[in-house]
Amino acid sequence: MPGIGVIVNVVAVLVGTAIGLAFGKVISERFRRIAFAALGLSTFCIGATMVIGGLMKADAVGSRYAVLVLVGALVIGGLLGEAIGIEAALERFGKWLRKTAYRVPWFAARGEGEHQMVEGFVVASLLYCVGTMTVIGSLNDGLGDPNLLYLKSLLDGVASIALASTLGVGVGFSVIPIAVVQGGIALGAHGLQPFLTEAVVREMSTVGGTLILAIGMDLMDVKRLPVGNLMPAIVVAGVLGAFFG
Asked: What ranges do the domains of the chain cover?
């Protein structure tokens, strides 16, 4: 059934979040910090691998514009995202979610601060909605092949355990953008498929890997970058990849 992969991904994040919330009660802050650092380092390495792999594939097919597309997509996409205010919109939505959730006694009893819940929502949303597996997995799911999203669901579920144990219940609310982004791609799969050529996917993967790398830097507390405002760079990379490809 088309769309089943998206449903499984949503369920995996919710289950992972529930386990992480329960697990977070029984481990000390010291162990949570090391688990978070390990997750950040893993995320950084995944992003770096995607960037290097994308550039190597471009070099293998003789493309001379890969670096130009990467830089151009990040700059143009960053300017577009800043003009739209994506990062600020995500934070406002996260604050609204917290205000709404705290009307439920269970959420209110947890006593999570606004910053913690918003950060959990924003970080998890960006991590789960950026990357090749999101685009290609959702596209394949819409065409009747959910296997790649099943793999992504496993990875996201494990990541949710680590994230929720440190950042709390906000991680679970990331299922909203997951459903919107991945569900939208799955629904439009038949229309999008002809445009996702090898060059387009390669450039989108390289830029997506760069953003995942930036998320890893944030998780490791190296530097906080406005990854939300850079998200349009993935679309820009696809357009540039189609032109130069």
From this structure: 4-244
